Amino acid sequence: MFTDFRYPLSSPVRRIRLLTAHGSLLTACRLITAHGLLLTLSGCAGVQSSLDPAGPQADHIARIWWLMLFILSAIFVIVMALLALATWRRRTSADNETELILKPEAGGESRMSTLVTTGVVITVFVLFILLISSFLTGRSLHSLAASNSPPLTIDITGQQWWWQVKYENDMPSQMVTTANEIHIPVGRVVQFKLKSNDVIHSFWVPNLHGKTDLVPGHVAATWIRADRPGTYRGQCAEFCGHQHAHMAFTVVAESEEEFKNWYDAQLLAAAQPANTQLARGQQVFMTSTCIMCHRIQGTDAGGAVGPDLTHVASRQTIAAGTLANTRDNLAHWILDSQAIKPGNRMPPNPLSAEDLSALLNYLQSLK
Amino acid sequence: MRFSYYISIVVACSVLLVSCKREERGFRVQPPAARAANSQTLTDLQPGASTSPAGIRNDFEENAYALSEGKRLYSAYNCNGCHAQGGGGMGPPLMDERWIYGGKPEQVYSTIVEGRPNGMPSFRQKVPEFQVWQLAAYVRSMSGQSPKDAAPSRDDHLQGKQPESQTKPLPVKDSKQ
Fold first, then answer.
1. Is A358 inside a domain boundary?
2. Do B156 and A198 touch (CB under 8 A)?
3. Rg over CA atoms, chain A
4. DSSP single-letter state for residue A214
5. Is residue A121 domain-shared with residue A30, that is, in the same domain?
6. Which of A92, A166, B75, B169 could join B144 in a cystine, given CB atoms 3.0 to 4.6 angstroms apart?
7. Which of A198, A292, A338 sits opposite B28 (nearest CB)?
8. Which of A305, A339, A343 minimises the CB distance to B76?
9. Together in a domain, A21 and A145
């Protein structure tokens, strides 16, 4: 440790020098910084990250994000450096003598106005860079809408707290209705028509595009193209009530062929019970509260209040991305969904163990 | 003088606490008085001296959340398919003072659970019990049987009538009277 008498004991410079002289503290600081950086970087990749773009629009958004980050970080560093300079600048002996007496400096005014003018010019220039790049990004975000290939159109209806997904087709028999899981073919422009049945929601798949609000009584449209196959997580991005945080969905981008296979499977009516155990499960479904809200195509169940369950076993999650679609989770969900997602619209269903097991078998057969 | 001024403010504020109860949100509630509601008598004709059953109190009628849930379920379960928004259509109106099968909470409950001749389906086992009580509370609020502070004050659809909170309480009359 060295002693620097140029600075008084209470000076921040001196304090920092004293602190950094301790090797252990320095190591700790380095560790914290390194970990912090790693943690920050880990946020860049993933199934729900706008910094890991999988489509042209998310790419534009990620680019402007990085541009703004770099420019604004540079400004921040420069301003902080100037501030530090101003704070720690040594006072000359002349300053100490003439404390609190302001006397005009020769040529000081013209120097100050040059400085201020330069500052204003630089600020306006930087703001213009940001403004123009924002405009350009905005334009390119909407360029997909103008592409002339006939898009695949998907109706999304936001509900408290799940997503209804309906693939539009001129032929009603070729329409597919499902929930909380959207399959799209890679490389094709997909048009989403966004509606809401209750309050304002917002449709957001960070890996593919920015947010678009779903407003009751209004059809909003957005276009998406996925360039890379994968599973991406979407999330409601507008506070919509008690279970807003549990209103998620999955976007599966797959090859044209896989998408066709999936679509054809979804078009089929539900599998008829193959044995008595499954038939019993179907009977439980039809004679209990389930039938009041849910639809299973090809049976008497035609409710439109809850998610369509025609191919529920083919989905990855239940309860709008809240739980993995396993038998155990499904059982807990049916018995007492209010313990998992309080306030959701599904009532508790006190079923006997035997009925529940039969019902689970049946639901899991709905591939 | 100053002191009594403060006291009156404190008292006035504590009165507001009473309103906290109207918004209690029970997501796993026990239905009020689930027992005995399933054996309703539909006629006054009975052998011997007449027995007047003790009325069942439906606490949901004073709970704003339960009433709004009832209002939501009313269209979710397609009650409005026949009864419209209370004015009636294929089914009888619910916002008037005439109750064909009785207008007491437990009578409305059993009408929903058991169904009634000429079209009213039985919702037994199809609608959970606590939701039937919420529906019954809402149906009664249509003719002003719920307190003004708890009854729904706006519709989610086009408004065709005054909201329930603005409805003047109508007398509950059986169709015989």
1. yes
2. yes
3. 30
4. E
5. no
6. B169
7. A338
8. A305
9. no
| Single pTM value for the model | 0.81
Question: Count of domains in chain A?
Answer: 3
The count of domains in chain B is 1
Interface predicted TM-score (ipTM) over 0.90 = no
In this structure, the answer to whether residues A225 and A304 fall within a common structural domain is no
Pairing assessment for the beta strands A176-179 and A181-185 based on DSSP bridges: unpaired
Spatial distance between the Cα atoms of B4 and A250, rounded to a whole number of angstroms: 62
Largest CA distance in chain B: 68
Residues A82 and A122: beta-carbon distance below 8 Å: no
Q: Which domain holds residue B150?
A: 58-177
Full residue range of the structural domain in which residue A48 is found: 44-87+108-252
Determine the pLDDT at residue B102. Answer: 86
**Residue B116 is which amino acid?**
R
Which residue has 């007492």 as its token pair?
A336
Q: Are residues A29 and A81 in the same domain?
A: no
A214-267 pLDDT, tens digit each: 999 999 999 999 999 999 999 999 999 999 999 999 999 999 999 999 999 999
CATH number at residue A330: 2.60.40.420
Q: Is A68 on the interface with B (CB under 8 A)?
A: no
In this complex, is the C-beta atom of A347 within 8 Å of any C-beta atom belonging to chain B? yes
Report the gap between the CA of B113 and the closest CA in chain A (Å): 13
